[in-house]
Amino acid sequence: MRIGVFICHCGSNIAGTVDCPSVAATALTYPDVVFSTDTMYACSEPGQDAIIQAVKDKNLDGVVVASCTPRMHEPTFRRAVERAGLNRYMFEMANIREHVSWIGKIKEQNTVKASELVRMAVEKLRRNRPLVAKRFETVKRVLVIGGGVAGIQAALDCADGGQEVVMVEREQSIGGKMAKLDKTFPTVDCSSCVLGPKMVDIAQHPKITLYTCSEVESVGGYVGNFQVTIRKKATYVDWSKCTGCGLCVEKCPSRKHPDPFNENLCNAPSINIPFPQAIPKKAAINAASCIMLQKGKCGACAKVCPVKCIDFEMKDELVTVDVGAVVVATGYDLFDWHKYPQYGEGRYKDVITSLQYERLLSASGPTGGHIKRPSDGKEPKTVVFVQCVGSRDKSVGRPYCSGFCCMYTAKQAILTKDHVPDSQSYVFYMDIRSPGKGYDEFTRRAMEEYGAQYVRGRVSMIYPKGDKLIVRGADTLAGTQVEVPADLVVLAVGAESAKGAVQLGEKLRVAPDQYGFFVESHPKLKPVETNTAGVFLAGACQGPKDIPASVGQGSAAASKVLGLLSKKELESDPAVSRVNPARCVGCGKCILTCPFGAIKAVADRFGNPKAEVIDTVCQGCGICTVTCPQGAIQLEHFTDNQILAEVNALCPPKIFANFE
Amino acid sequence: MSQLDDLKSAIKDRLGELECVIGWEQGYDALHATPLFIRTEADLDRLVIGPLAVHNLATYLTAYKGKKIGVVVKGCDSRSVIELVNENLVNRDDIVVFGLCCDGVVSQPKIRAALPADPGFVESVTIGTDELKITVAGQTVTLKKSDVLADKCRVCQHPNAIIADVLIGTKQNPAGANSLACQEEFEAKSDAEKLAFWQETMSRCIRCYACRNACPMCVCRDYCIATSRDPLWLSQDNSPAENMMFQMVHVSHLAGRCTECGECERACPVDIPLMLLRRYMNKQVKDVFEHQAGTALDQTPPLFTFKVEEERIHERGW
């Protein structure tokens, strides 16, 4: 074999602490290395051209580049060697930047380490063989999971781009958290007036199929060819007949169940349409509180329904769809603030969350848009807002900033003044984070035009006194303790990952971070991709986001989907597991451990059970190869021999040393 | 009828439908038993059971995969059968299990140590309820059975075969003790002491692979990493480090699968206390996965599953 080695300086990133020419000279002594040089920027156009030229001039059949992390530039160099006429897997990369120059200061030692990493790459490359990708067709349909504003945007963009869209929403109506909001910052325009038309577009778009009250049951397959099973939960109402007239909702005698859409501020009938702009505007029965379903008698809704669409016998239904790509837009949930003893742990009725306050402000909310506090229905004159409840707080395991709370608190302070002109708002804050367009001006308006009193400090306790709640906190700017007698306390509760997100991530093979938000492929350069090909992220499921950012990401995910599905065929990575049937004893351990369902049991021509890898499903994680006791499964491009060659290059076994 | 007669008649009933039944017979002298492959009724006369029948016959099962065979098992051996079935390495329907209720087997090294001189050829052994009378070179020595009991029997929790198509004998009670002094003593050592201990012990290893061949769960056969030249995982260098490497690989390969039958240690010709490693590893597996290999059918060994989050390994704190 004829190997060429290229040692990249990366400007001074590597050359600053590694003697690159010396590494190149050392590399020339390694077996099969016939050409070795150092280069200023291997990834630049002249750098790549030099590699191609060397392959041609020196008749190379393998290339090693020692530079940065392969996560960034391995595809770049693979394309370069391919342009030079080699197979793209006849290339190895040694990471001497992140693994050497950036972490060590001593030049001599760094140079030795860089040389050793290059030696490992050379030894691996000597055992590489050309691999060829398979091609397969894609299904031109997209699954969007979650019908919040991010999902809605992604679905509309995909559908407008000509793709079929299947949208799955867990709740009865799409709209997500945004549908619950009264107004939106920084324009203070009506949330449902902005969102409503988009929701209607979802319902009316000929290319969009909407499943609400539905969840993703299982996901199989791979990029371009996912098979998704959707569980349509029983609504006990035949939606093909329901006209959304609402007669049943009026007549339902069961009204003891809290209304989740109104954040449990009031009760909802057992058969309900959650809000006037709901899409689809269809009634559904809550089985847990329905008298008919629980006790077997009532049926008031069935009696009044003019189209006879109530069906108490309805069962969950499973629907299977094939899709080529998936957009995950499952959003967020609110942090459970009851963990905080200082806010009363739920003992005081007039300590509410910011989202509950939105419902009180909303004209379609339980109070018809008049601010009435939950305990006695009085209009509050002093409202205290407490920021960073479950954000930036290590003690409750939520060290991150939820991002949007500063802004919505300012908006709520403004709206409070609008609703109750003689009211006074106080805001306890840590820092004001308002980096968006028009955001800082907006918080300034809350303070200067609407007279909200901003107090920089944390609240240490809330206790009742008469019909007031005394909020005691620090004013760190004045260096004093303050006590504010409040009529209502609104907690700016932070965002956390949506309930069930981690479980959904398991089905989609998308990893959650330590807080349950989905991890993007690259924090800067691949913000909507995941490490599972064909699965994209939109909105707050990837991290707390406000509406503009969610909409932006929804469109970004849609453009990725459209780009993916615009190709007639896709290539599968050939670095997948392969079974040696002669060694396989058919015990099926690999089938049990494979997280992707990429291995199936087949019979050989004698009827003996054998394992077989489905190339396109295999993600090359290698769990099967370490599970197989027989060593019958090997991961192409990472075979035992290749890995072992790298280990032996780094620490040669004594017995080898004896021979030398 | 004695337990042996019961067993013989049970085997006789099923022998016709089976390729063979694996039991024990007397070996080269009165003190040693050896596996017996019963193919005809005449072979049955040679069958023996009792405290000298030490071998775990489940070791042979994978070699007969696809054929119907019978196997005689003690409580501990039955765990190996279960594990093989659970791992899909043998088919439960192909195996007729003759289960014994066992009151313990002997440890040959302990007997050897208790005899006045190297026994060489043992002329006769008389087995009483609590003692063994051993005649060697014309001299008769009486040993208390409890003194020469194998370590595994001192802490045995499954004296009766867990699965059996035919269960022979009266049920025995599990041992009261649940830990061995030798294990506790080993685990109390410091890392440096442990290293010194294994340096010394592993220098004795002759890499004969008897431990591997006797192990019922070592099923890699021709593809064992110890003898594979492609890939060359281990060299033939007979240094303590390389020997230890082999043993560590063996132990990790048995993680969640080892049924603690003790065959590796029994088979070792240079008396390396391999069970120290096995017991320690099994304890870890039990702590982390609440799993004991081969104690119930339909268990899945923890390393043959995939979970994003293990219940008892908290990698992420939510």
Which sheet architecture does the biggest sheet of chain A show?
A: 5 strands, parallel
Helix content of chain B: 25-40%
Q: Of all protein chain pairs, which has the greatest interface, and how many residues does each chain bring to it?
A: A-B, 31 and 28 residues
Q: For the largest beta sheet of chain A, what order do the strands appear in spatially?
A: 10-7-6-18-29
Helical fraction of chain A equals 25-40%
Structural class of chain A: alpha/beta
- Inertia-based shape of chain B: globular
**Element-level helix/strand string of chain B:** HEEEHEHEEEHHEHHHHHH
Estimated share of beta-strand residues of chain A: 15-25%
The overall pLDDT of chain B, averaged over residues, is: 91
The strand count of chain B comes to 8
Give the strand line-up of the largest sheet of chain B: 2-1-3-4-8
- Number of H/I helices of chain A: 19
Total individual domains of chain B: 3
Note the gap between the termini of chain B: 62 Å
The rough form of chain A would be described as globular
Instruction: State the separation between the terminal residues of chain A, measured CA to CA.
Output: 21 Å
Multimeric status of the protein: heterodimer
